[in-house]
Amino acid sequence: MSCAKVVELIGCSNKSFDDATNEAFNRAKKTIRGITGMKVVGQSVKIENNKIKEYRVNLKLSFGVE
Fold it and tell me: What pTM does this model have?
């Protein structure tokens, strides 16, 4: 039987939701081995002076337990 662990991350970018997702994944893969999947569970933005200042993506990342 295989076993997986799930962690929740928040990725941020001043460019786009896609860039925020990639930033979170690129950061996570530096310290987490065996990533098998990632699910976007939410998106939000930070607003300042009536403009979008930052895109935020809530992710659930899964990886195998050794």
Answer: 0.86
